[in-house]
Amino acid sequence: MHDVAAHAAHHAPPTSFIRKHVFSLDHKVIGKQYYALALVAAFVGMFLSWFMRIHLAWNDTAIPGLQLLSKTGAPGGVMTPEYYLQLMTMHGTIMVFFVLTTAPFAAFGNYFLPIQVGAEDMPFPHFNMMSFWVTFVAFLVLMSSFILGDGPTLGGWTQYAPLNAVGSVAGPGQGLGVVLWATSIGLFCVGQLLGSLNFITTTLDLRVKGMSLMRLPLTAWAWFITSCMGLTAFAVLMPACILVILDHVAGTSFFVASNLVINDQVQPHSGGSTLLWQHLFWFFGHPEVYIAIVPGLGIVSHILITNMRKPMLSHRTLIYSMGALAVLSYMVYGHHMFVSGMNPFSSLAFSFPTLVITIPSTIVVLVQVFSLYGSKLRINSASLFSLGFISMFVAGGVSGFFLAQPSIDIMLHATYFVVGHFHMVMGVAAMFGIFAGTYFWFPKMTGRMMNETLGKAHFWLSFVGAYCIFMPFHYLGLAGNVRRYSSFVDDFLQPLIPVHRFITVAALLTGAAQLIFLYNLIHSRFWGKLAPNDNPWEATSLEWSTATPPPFDNFGGKHPVVYHDPYQYGVQSSVGDYVMQTSPEQVKTESDEQ
Amino acid sequence: MAKFFAITIIIIAIASAIPILRHTWAPPEDISTHGALIDEQLSETMAEAGISFLAAQFVLAFFIWKFSNPAPDAKLKNFPGGAKGLVIAAFLVVGIEVMALGIFGAKAWANVYLTPPAADAMPIQVQAGQFAFYFRYPGPDGKFGATHPELINEGQQNYYGLDPEHDVDARDDIVAAEMAIPVNKEIHLLMHSKDVGHSFYVRELRVQQDFVPGLDVSLHFTATKVGKYEIVCTQLCGLGHYNMKAYLEVLSQQDFDDWMKKETAMQ
Asked: Is B75 a member of any domain?
């Protein structure tokens, strides 16, 4: 099976520039393309958040240059309420789809999953190439809404019905803007479905001799589990997007009820269901949270193990817990809809699995934290971001206790408490996973090391800054600060404006710290110190056993054979305190010696 | 560097907890009969989440402090009991904790949503539309007139599309831009959206419920304290979302009767 499948993935090395660097079939090039796309998207999303934060803190302040983005949305640089919502929608959409899904899953997974299982490439390289380019077009379509029609949709990244389906009568961007949004996300789903198919088949069919499922590194397991989620979640969102487009262009009424009146006009729709959209969206939306975070759990575990010089307390427990998260993620989506008008009995039915999902999450954290006990922890940029990931995942995770309960959700729903929760647990934590992965795998991807001093500066500013931004969001939520407001005109919100100003300053500084990362990334790519060898971190998995950067077919025409579990550290071998998966050397562990 | 990191984690964890312990930004005083259970649930959850947060951060910081940059001859060790003990702890401690929260929370939820309104609860209809709420009282006949979407005309202040000319029930309906209710009287709120999704949120009342276009949703509550409170929209409804609000006036029975007379005269 391995030989046949491996042969199926084989394709000749490209010769032309276009086939090598643009329309490449090589999973490593595609991984780097995904990374580059995520990087651009992340900075676009971050700049949008800067604009939003400045507006929230100082409502009437002109933001220099913003009028260039939209004359009507920001006359003289001062943002209008509708333009705030449009930028907010774009920020959320860009970050969730094109950064948090793209970087940890599609970028790193593409680059390293085939190498970690010992394959030459993915089984369907053309699908793989198509998945990136479809995603790229999806990004362009989304960006085009900045300049087409009356701007991007203002309906938020969740695009609730019927605001998303009644057309431009509901506000700027609700006509063409929504169609472009739905087209973009529909295309994005196609890209992810193609990618997920490749990830699943790579993991199941292309493992080399000796690579049993339990010998897969935690990263490979995380990408595999994520791709299983992606295959089902995106398969629901894509048709939902098509139905929205049909409501706009074909006169259908999937999401619009009868007799809605806007501007004193009865709308020409009838018979649709408002809540249908929410069910379809959140059936995707909650697994999406885990699609963003599970690769991070795998990446930071992989990196921490290397830097602890010992395996996690239990490899299997982590794998089963990540699997449990994936399965449960489909049973909890209704917690986004407690006060939506859904049957109140359903709220209780969705509440219990939501509370239960804290158990596998807790197990993952406990295993990661208590594995530090008795380790020989190396502190570097990658391990710092991995440890920061755990801290953030816990901080954002515990606020899930509140939002899992419908009774408390009555108070906290649609407030900044929710915004703080998801930014910490799936935004910042996932970003920290991306940063950790970047510092860790950069030498393998480029042959050069990233600057550690800049890396640590980046970490310190990001870690402290992220807490300064997102912990106060929880306090604002407790005080009832409603989200998605472009300014705070209500009496009870006025006293909270100083907190918003503090957050804005923290966001500007923390955002600026990301420029250090960008500089480090670009400078190190071209002028960084050369990696001392193929395995600078003294790691064990297959990506470190091949040349740097890996050749076109990953292992230079050889088929590696795996002899060991993925994380054989704390042993006595000819190379040090570890033995690589591909080394036939028999080793003794320190405990054997005792 | 590692020790500094551990200290930073501890400082951040404690600093994060201080505003919670000092109630710097806490929910306002509850003015409802059902809110006490919700508040109790919130406090218990805060205690359990707070302890979990602090414990996890402290252990993380301690291990980073203790096990980074060890002596070259240090031996690797595993946490006594291994993963099995942690899994059992997660199931027992967190499992029981969240189940308890779930069961007690279900009671608080049922109190609001799974009990019918009293037979003598006062019916009030609220209609949400971009970007205002309008409240309708049935008038002396106790019946709401039928609504006709095609008759809605904001310019003529026919916000509900009533047809008093042909509909007897609609003639005495009272429509107001603010909501007045008598104190200690159960209200049966009938929620209707004219156009897109909106929400009805009164912090002090411990009430938040979305309007669902095409579906009339009902809610019931009793306010226990006279005062003026803000009703805000929490469901993104368009460009004026941030400015969509109304006031809830909780009045003594006498003041409410006076208010009703005044509104009746104005219709």
From this structure: no
Q: What residues contact residue A263 under an 8 Å CB cut-off, 6+ apart? A: A169
Q: What is the pTM of this model?
A: 0.95
* Domain at A293-526: CATH code: 1.20.210.10
For residue B255, give the CATH number of its domain: 2.60.40.420
B12 lies within 8 A of chain A by CB: yes
With respect to residue B76, please indicate whether it lies within any of the assigned structural domains.
no
Report the Cα A408 to chain-centroid distance in Å: 28
Residues of chain A contacting B109 with CB distance shorter than 8 Å: 344, 347-348, 351, 405-407
CB pair distance less than 8 Å for A414 and B199: yes
Q: What's the pLDDT tens digit per position in B4-44? A: 999 999 999 999 999 999 999 999 999 999 999 999 999 99
Instruction: Indicate the number of domains in chain B.
Output: 2
Residues B136 and B218 in one domain: yes
What residue spans define the domains of chain A?
1-10+17-254, 293-526, 532-594
Domain of residue B100 covers: 2-69+81-113
Measure the CA–CA gap between B3 and A47, rounded to whole angstroms.
34
Residue found by looking up tokens 């589990």 in the block? A225
Exposed / middle / buried, residue A495 (Cβ in 10 Å: 0-12, 13-18, 19+) = exposed
Chain B residues near residue A348 by CB distance under 8 angstroms? 106, 109-110
A interface mutation test: which of B242, B243, B245 has the most A CBs within 10 A? B242
CATH code for residues A1-10+17-254? 1.20.210.10
**Chain-centre distance for alpha carbon A367:** 22
- Is the minimum CB–CB distance between B100 and chain A shorter than 8 Å? no
**pLDDT tens digit string along A213-263?**
999 999 999 999 999 999 999 999 999 999 999 999 999 999 999 999 999
